[in-house]
Amino acid sequence: MKYKSTRGGVAGLGFTDALLMGLASDSGLLVPESIPDVTSQLDDLRHCSFVELAQRIVGMFVDDIDTATLNRLITEAYSTFDHPEVVGWHALDNVTVVELFHGPTLAFKDVALQLLGQLFQHVLALRNQRLNILGATSGDTGSAAIAGVRGQDNVDIFILYPKGRVSPLQELQMTSVPDRNVHCIEVDGTFDDCQRLMKETFADLDYKAKYQLGAVNSVNWARVLAQIVYYGYASLKAPAAAQFSVPTGNFGNVFAAYLAQRMGFPINKLIVATNENDILARFFATGEYALGQVHQTVSPAMDIQVASNFERFLYYYFDEDSERLNGFMSDFAATGRASLDVIPATELFAAVAINQQQTLAAMRDIKTRFGYVLDPHTAVGVAAAQQLCGAEEPILCIATAHPAKFPEAVEQATDTVPTHPSLDALSGLAQRKSSLDADLSAVKRFLAESVPA
């Protein structure tokens, strides 16, 4: 399997080269040159455990790591989860919650980033290289990425996060890590500022090469690849063609579901559930992709107005026409808006924005009726499913984080305070972080002064 850029300037990359490149050198996003078709294998795949399915799916996209080694790396990645099947499964009448928060940082990002850490370590050791990872987080990516690579000799990781716009526990999960290869940077701005700074840094190709920069955000293809697995797994457990409600800000999570459907897994509806930061919901309703003001909400990981992974979806929506995609993205970069000539015609996607009142109401309702506690991001997905699906219609809702990561929001909605031993253990730990303005030169200077000689 080879990889190419959505913008047409890169092609023919092997998987390990794509892994280390992260963001494509033409500023596009890497995608596979073809998408495998599993339709004829579904009966066989249905009997796989999660780890076995991961080995099968990931193996379809990787041909430059031998199978035995790749399978070992996958097994080791998921040995860190505290659920025997990695993914939990909790039925609430017609809604089934797919729990993806059983990894070391209690967030769905662990499913991909535990594997990414294993892949980085293997490939860098094999090539006798090192990597300086630059990432941006709206909450969970940072701690999950740090957990995947902390303590590694050939990796340093730099995480940008918006000051005051992640939950206190999310910040503690990052800043309390003592390993010297971990660098946490609070940026005086929004997540969109952090994401822009990261992309602009990668766009300086001489700088990127000089400081050996790599990516862990969902701009890295390996992140998306690992996420395809849980959609395939959940769809094969469902009694009929699956419908998923996916809380999303950056579009990476729901894009993985889209690819799983294109591969032939039995999926027939994807609900794009956003909070008040509704750029994606507005696009699917109107065909216009337009910046809005970033609203701070109780679901902070979704407080995003520029969905970095959306470019991959547009690439396929435009029938892999890089020239058309480049025009659309150029318009957006220049003016903050870009439009399709018509409302996007897709039977697969539905989209809805859920406000804070609806989010808290869904948390309260599920706790009252079922004694089950949702985190506020998962509650956005549940509320969206309840709004768009009938009461008897089966729907799978992606649970992105353990509720104990957001105790203030949960208490506000349910009058209960969820806990988890790994989070309780963070109390009182020393923090290490740096502070920067949302300024590209400041970020590049900080990296230059901090990377190992």
Key traits:
44% helix, six-stranded mixed β-sheet, Rossmann fold, five-stranded parallel β-sheet, alpha/beta, 16% strand, 453 residues, 19 helices
Approximately how much beta-strand content do the residues carry? Answer: 15-25%
Q: In the residues, how many domains can be counted?
A: 1
From the alpha carbons, calculate the radius of gyration and give it in angstroms. Answer: 20 Å
Tell me the number of strands.
15
Sequence stretches where pLDDT stays below 50 over 5 or more residues = none
Percent in helix: 40-55%
- The CATH first-level class comes to Alpha Beta
Quickly give the structural class.
alpha/beta
> Any idea what the shape is?
globular
How is the CATH topology named? Rossmann fold
Describe the main β-sheet briefly.
Answer: 6 strands, mixed
Strand order of the largest sheet: 3-4-14-9-10-13
Under the CATH scheme, the architecture is 3-Layer(aba) Sandwich
Arithmetic mean pLDDT: 94
Distance between the termini: 35 Å
Description:
With 453 residues, this protein is α/β, with parallel strands linked by helices. It has a single domain (1-120, 220-419), classed as Rossmann fold (3-Layer(aba) Sandwich), CATH 3.40.50. It has 19 helices and 15 strands. The strands form 4 sheets. It has a 6-stranded mixed sheet with strand order 3-4-14-9-10-13. α3 crosses α4 and α3 packs across α10. The radius of gyration is 20 Å and the shape is globular. It starts with a strand and ends with a helix. The mean pLDDT is 94.
